[in-house]
Amino acid sequence: xxxxxxxxxxxxxxxxxxxxxxxxxxxxxxxxxxxxxxxxxxxxxxxxxxxxxxxxxxxxxxxxxxxxxxxxxxxxxxxxxxxxxxxxxxxxxxxxxxxxxxxxxxxxxxxxxxxxxxxxxxxxxxxxxxxxxxxxxxxxxxxxxxxxxxxxxxxxxxxxxxxxxxxxxxxxxxxxxxxxxxxxxxxxxxxxxxxxxxxxxxxxxxxxxxxxxxxxxxxxxxxxxxxxxxxxxxxxxxxxxxxxxxxxxxxxxxxxxxxxxxxxxxxxxxxxxxxxxxxxxxxxxxxx
Length: 288
Description:
Structural class: alpha/beta
Number of helices: 12
Oligomer: single chain
Distance between the termini: 44 Å
Strand order of the largest sheet: 6-7-8-3-9-10
């Protein structure tokens, strides 16, 4: 990769409790490109959350290195506050952490801790709320607890964005949301990436979710990095994914089935539009 913002080299992490130990990550080496959306996928217990908690030093490597935007996360002299301003993290059910009397107060919490001026805080709050589709004029003075579940989650996301991170880590961000709220969340994530150029690291076990958002996948199984590549490359390897306890998106399953039925759909075709185009061209050549 030409411009990696995250680089892990031979990262291992062992949880220790007295005489008991568990290897949660084993010899992970990967890079994530600046401005990309990378998905860390795997079943429960595969090490996904442990891995991303190294990105803002919630955890430190047992062995190996983690470099985030030029900062060595294992360095004793690391400026942790500066690192955590670069790496915004949104954990599962973040709406449970909302506490402000108004939406604006909640979103302002992080910028105020950065000791910004009142005008700077207000500007960041307004900009962040606009990014997630909750304009300040309409939502700023409302109680966050009067909103829908999907809107509350977007308020939590705005609170992270208000700190202007260059990396946004999302741990199972749409868990518990209905289909419409998930689609809204995806839409605003794409808009945030397009407008801000932020690097997104998405933790998920939902193949449809990562197919929608990610342009690079890293597959973990029992703490080991088993596969990495573009979604269209990974999703053609259904047997290997199933060995890791994962499925593939329904569309990828359909395309694989059509190939087995004898339709000449190239392996690099991964979307419905691409499949229709190939089949249309094939039918046209047969007519001529």
